[in-house]
Amino acid sequence: MHRVGLGHDTHRLGPGTALLVGGVAIPHDRAAVGHSDADVLLHAVTDALLGAAGLGDIGEMFPDTDPGNRGRDSAGMLRAAADRLTAAGWRIGNLDCVIFAERPKILPHRPAIRRRVAEILGLDEAAVWLKAKTGEGVGPIGEQQAIAAECVALIERSASGT
Ligand code: MG
Question: 159, exposed or middle or buried, with CB in 10 Å at 0-12, 13-18, 19+?
Answer without folding.
Answer: exposed
